[in-house]
Automatic annotation (TrEMBL):
<keyword id="KW-0732">Signal</keyword>
<protein>
    <recommendedName>
        <fullName>Lipoprotein</fullName>
    </recommendedName>
</protein>
<feature type="signal peptide">
    <location>
        <begin position="1"/>
        <end position="30"/>
    </location>
</feature>
Length: 327
């Protein structure tokens, strides 16, 4: 593969895998403010490397990472945002505006567990790899349900009440009739009713830092670097046309593999990928080191994470109450 093509593939592949990791928590953070650099005190990979026991494994269906009890599940995130929509509708109606809350299925991201372990380490199922390559298995990712009203676009006044912002983006204290607006408008009021903070709903930033941080840190760990090299050598032995530094970069978004279905070259590469993961025990080593970094970060932030669990219970209880009031 030419150098330019190899570098492009590697960059895009890494982005795809990172997206898979964050999918389980990203929706829960959708109501939070724009992501900012990690705050002071965020867990890091400094100090002695954690000691881990490494099992021989490939199947990730029963894998549970230490951070998962601190992350909302897909369905819990759906309940939170549906409850927010219900509370927003009530607030808008109070100000004389129509903003109907959605009905039907609660939106899901398609992740099976909070840390999205089914996709966190790339493909691992030999049968699916041989049939679908790197393409999604049909039915594994449900269609997104848009959790917003349909119909005519809301007017300027309705948007003012909804968001609590003037057209220039500054906070609005009142509507055109002089009625005091809640901080963040009706959306802020609804969010605050669920979480106590008009700007935050769902997973907390600290938990995201632990989840994504361990994934990144694990890839720099010498044990994982070594097993990645072993995997790469295995790939080279079986596929002379492709060179991948590690499993996060195979195959990326190479134009050769972005068709509606997987072709013979992709199926062969995907099958080799899984076979080399089995041969070198990539999943056993990587997931063990990943979990070790999480355990250390959790131990360092135990007091804050205990508060996170309490906050999760509060948010879900408030959401259930809001949804029950609509029935």
């Amino acid at each position: 593969m030419p150098a330019r093509r190899t570098h492009r593939t590697r960059r895009l592949g890494a982005a795809v895998i990172l997206l898979a990791v964050t999918a389980g928590c990203a929706q829960g953070q959708a109501a939070e403010s724009t992501p900012t650099p990690a705050p002071s005190g965020t867990p890091t990979a400094s100090g002695p490397l954690p000691v881990v026991a490494v099992p021989k494994m490939l199947d990730v269906s029963s894998l549970v990472l230490p951070v998962e009890p601190y992350l909302f599940t897909d369905r819990q995130v759906g309940r939170l945002f549906r409850a927010k929509a219900v509370l927003t509708e009530s607030c808008m109606r109070r100000f004389g505006h129509s903003w109907p809350a959605p009905t039907g299925p609660i939106p899901e991201t398609g992740t099976l567990n909070p840390a999205n372990t089914a996709h966190r380490y790339g493909i691992t199922d030999a049968a699916k790899a041989a049939r679908y390559g790197y393409h999604p298995v049909p039915g594994s990712v449900p269609p997104q349900v848009k959790d917003k009203p349909t119909g005519p676009q809301p007017g300027r006044e309705a948007m003012l009440v909804l968001r609590g912002l003037n057209q220039d983006g500054t906070p609005a204290g009142a509507d055109s009739r002089g009625r005091r607006l809640p901080a963040g408008g009706c959306q802020g009021e609804a969010t605050k009713a669920l979480s106590g903070d008009p700007q935050k709903l769902g997973n907390r930033e600290l938990v995201g830092a632990v989840n994504i941080g361990s994934y990144r840190d694990s890839q720099r760990d010498p044990r994982v670097v070594a097993v990645f090299r072993a995997w790469s050598r295995c790939m080279e032995r079986h596929n002379n046309d492709y060179t991948y530094a590690d499993p996060t970069r195979a195959p990326g978004k190479d134009p050769k593999f972005n068709g509606p279905t997987a072709g013979p070259a992709e199926l062969t590469l995907a099958s080799t990928d899984v076979a080399c993961k089995r041969e070198t025990n990539v999943i056993g080593v990587w997931s063990s080191v990943d979990a070790a970094y999480q355990r250390r970060a959790i131990a360092e932030k135990q007091r804050e994470l205990t508060a996170v669990k309490k906050d999760m219970r509060t948010q879900l209880a408030n959401a259930d109450q809001a949804l029950a009031g609509r029935r």
